[in-house]
Amino acid sequence: MRWIGDGFRSLFVSFFDFRLVAIGRRSAAPIGIWSHWKEVSSYARSGIWIGKRIRSRPGDGELSSKHTDYLQDDRALAKKTTIREIASKARVSMSTVSRVLNGNSFVEESKKQAVKEAVDALNYSPNAVARSLVKGQTYTIGVVSNDLGSPFNGKITQGIAMGLQATKYSPVIVDALWSKEMSTAAVESLVARSVDALIFVGGDIPVEELDQLRKKKPTLVIARELPEWSSDNYFIDNFAGAYSAAQYLIKAGHREIAFVSGIEGRLDSKRRFEGFNQALEEHQITFREELYVSSDFTAPSAVAAAETLLERQSDFSAVFCCNDQTAFGLRKVFSDRGLRVPEEVSIVGFDDDPLSAYMSPPLTTVRQPVKFLGREAAKAVVNLLSGEPVDSQVFKPELIIRESVTKLDTT
Amino acid sequence: MRWIGDGFRSLFVSFFDFRLVAIGRRSAAPIGIWSHWKEVSSYARSGIWIGKRIRSRPGDGELSSKHTDYLQDDRALAKKTTIREIASKARVSMSTVSRVLNGNSFVEESKKQAVKEAVDALNYSPNAVARSLVKGQTYTIGVVSNDLGSPFNGKITQGIAMGLQATKYSPVIVDALWSKEMSTAAVESLVARSVDALIFVGGDIPVEELDQLRKKKPTLVIARELPEWSSDNYFIDNFAGAYSAAQYLIKAGHREIAFVSGIEGRLDSKRRFEGFNQALEEHQITFREELYVSSDFTAPSAVAAAETLLERQSDFSAVFCCNDQTAFGLRKVFSDRGLRVPEEVSIVGFDDDPLSAYMSPPLTTVRQPVKFLGREAAKAVVNLLSGEPVDSQVFKPELIIRESVTKLDTT
DNA sequence: GGGATCTGTGAAAACGTTTTCACAAGCACC
DNA sequence: GGTGCTTGTGAAAACGTTTTCACAGATCCC
Question: Which one of A42, A188, A386 has the shortest CB-CB distance to B15?
Fold first, then answer.
């Protein structure tokens, strides 16, 4: 909070949110020999709020150096070179400079050279904001992620960033943290910044809202199956992943297999259960309900799930976990209770977390091609922006066999 | 690749990088009854490249509807409402609309209302690009991260995003993937997009380059100690973290403690070794060189390190690992060799990975306040942007005691 | 009651590009 | 050698805001 002098329409500066509120009041004693009016504005410069409109009355004389110093806008001194300066240095018009820079029209070789020299000499780089304004494109792609801190989401995002690397688009990543409000806020902020396209990584925004967005901007939804969309949707085949893991357990002789779910209601959890079930049914195994325990993809919740499961005292020789964190949680409870893995209980996970290979025993799990998915999504969005339609695509996960499953002697 | 008709300066469209190359050639047979010139431009619209400059010669008559359809720019139809329309609907000037929207000047209540109604009625939201152009601020903050896929970096970035949530700034996150070229490219792209400030998360860009950048833009370096900077640098006290872990091992009776390093040459690794050493020295323990093994923060490399260490056949009762992934790698080798943890070897880690609590045994480790650091960095950068200087700050890590360290009977 | 100051508002300039438009000179062809 | 297309280029408009500037009416104070 800071008052700029006295003696004129004073300013109340709130640092918290950069709003400037004018408090009109009678002038008391003008600084120096002139009087000012100041349009209340939102310019913060080197800690001092500086008026842009400072008017000396006729006959009031010049501002003293003391005051000009005070009023000086120091950021303005670091003014960037503009296309106008290049034009005048190269003795051509601004249009020509633009044409050379964008390389989209014939320009005489000598002028081309002159422009390039001027650009180098003045160390010019074009202002992307101005370009965006006139082109109506920003060359940015909004990426709405949930929980960037998790390896799964982090890696997908990284894949997108990598895939966009060689293009002229950059990702603008926001983290919605699985919160409804934050995700709408995030999307609004992206739209206001006029990103050229949107990529949703997972999330649970209702399809209707996504439909609305898709009308306005090229939109891609990845790592989330959207049955309503026949295009612009890349996801991993959770059904097949779970099916292959369950199949593997069954082939190893397991019949009583417990299932620890992910977040109930989410399609990925559901599909994993369906794939799991399908494998069981194909081998005429009926799944007993007491072997289903609910969890939420986190290790702490898996601990609770494991305890519930053990309390039920229902026999099982293997557990299917909806992700690797769940497997880690279970493994810990089994350790604590002296249940040996895999000798007494086998475990399979899902995701292939970087640490799963280092669990003891190393975890057999379903690897999702996350980075690949991210990179493909980047390609897809570039295609979308060039007007090529993008068909939905299902990515196959891969069963990584390690040591957490034992072969049962079925005699 | 697509030719728009024949008969005039044709266009070769390269989809790969959106460059349009004009191929001048003699006209053959103009479409319809008029002739065109087309400024070669880079407009892609719904898969068809459409000329902006289509000139019918005098007397050539109107374009037929068939052709206007073809030439129509469909994205332009979805034109956003502008401040001008709000102004005319509310019967005030554009200036007044702007003033109401920004709330930075007195406006008569009745006009204020009229503007607000018009805004609601037309569902207007201001164009951030235009605003940025005139204000010279974009309200974006460039975040240069390395390896977003790792929990450590992912969580810091998440912290920054969370911290920026309530402000009017948004993060623009790029991943440099520890590559020199990618990081310079990333920084250049951020600067070209005129982000208002930069945050570097870790990384190894030379100080001189950072100094240069700092002259142009408010810059904050976090999660990396920069001894040359006395401000704008937030980092975690690696020395203290390692010291407390080593101290804990010593108090538990360990004398022969092995050290598995992080990436050699990086200051965080170095500081951890110094902290470790300091604790040893204070207890008059001389560190034997054969107990130092080099690694690089990844589990696979830790496996190699563990094997090297065991081959040396030097006695040790505990190992200090430079991060948790290293600890996981070691733990696996010890398992495989039948070395019990913690009964025969104790382990401490660094980072507190989400899965460390679920290692068997649960890993005693040094927790870094990563999300907190991210959030604080967000606050700091906002302060920086309002002109308040930001002093460098050291964040204290916390020793999390679990079960991977055993107390030795020192008799 | 009258000069000085305050207040609210619209017109217009500015931000830095790209694109359009107009034009002049060059070329090709009958 | 004239007609008509091609080519290169500069001036100016456009993108959608914010901010400046000018002005008129209101208020204040001696």
Answer: A386
Question: Which protein residue has its CA closest to C1' of C21?
Answer: B53
Half-sphere exposure of B351 (CA within 13 A, CB side): 26
- B98 CA → D18 C1’, Å: 7
- Give the pLDDT confidence score for residue A78 in this predicted structure: 53
Reading the block at residue A295, the tokens are 């969890």
3-state secondary structure of A172: strand
The closest of A350, A366, A302 to B354, measured between CA atoms, is A302
User: Quick check: B19 contacting A, CB < 8 Å?
Assistant: yes
Q: Which residue has the tokens 């965080």?
A: B268
Lowest-pLDDT range, A136-145, A174-183, B64-73, B75-84?
Answer: B64-73
- Mutation site, A42, A173, A184, A217, interface B, largest B CB count within 10 A: A173
For chain A residues 135-164, those near strand D by a CB cutoff of 7 A are 136
Are A235 and A225 in contact by the 8 Å Cβ rule? The answer is: yes
Question: From edge to edge, which strands make up the β-sheet containing A170-175?
Answer: A170-175, A140-145, A197-201, A219-222, A233-236, A393-395
Task: Mention every residue, 6+ apart, whose C-beta is less than 8 A from residue A152.
Answer: A223, A323, A351, A368, A370
Long-range contacts made by residues A128-132, C-beta under 8 angstroms, separation at least 24? A128/B192, A128/B193, A128/B194, A129/B129, A129/B132, A129/B133, A129/B138, A129/B193, A129/B194, A130/B133, A132/A194, A132/B129
Q: Say if residues B247 and B280 touch (Cβ distance below 8 Å).
A: no
CA distance B233 to B394: 8
Closest alpha carbon to A343 in A267, A291, A255, A406: A406
Distance A101 CA to D12 C1' (A): 20
Nearest one of B169, B312, B194 to A130, comparing CA atoms: B194
| Strand D bases within 7 angstroms of protein beta carbons | 5-22, 28-29
Q: Which residues pair with residue A257 across a beta bridge?
A: A318
Task: Quick: pLDDT tens for B141-154.
Answer: 999 999 888 889 99
Cα B124 to the chain's mean position, in Å?
A: 31
Q: Which of A222, A245, A246 is nearest to A235 (CA)?
A: A222
Residues 6+ apart with CB under 8 A from B57: B34, B35
Residue B359 makes CB contacts below 8 A (sequence gap 6+) with A359, B327, B328, B331, B404
Question: Is residue A157 within a helix (H) or strand (E), and if so which, with residue range?
Answer: helix A151-164
User: Is 80 exceeded by the pLDDT of residue A11?
Assistant: no
* Total-model pTM: 0.81
Q: Which of B189, B162, B380, B138 is nearest to A186 (CA)?
A: B162
| Burial of residue A62 (number of CB atoms within 10 Å: 0-12, 13-18, 19+) | exposed
**Distance (Å, whole) CA B99 – CA B126:** 13
Q: What angle do CA B89, B93, B99 make, to 5 degrees?
A: 105
A105 confidence band (pLDDT: 50, 70, 90): low
CB contact under 8 A, A158 and B175: yes
- CA-CA-CA-CA torsion sign (A5, A9, A10, A15): negative
The single-letter code of the amino acid at B381 is: V
Residue A26: both structure tokens together: 């009678």
3-state secondary structure of A244: helix
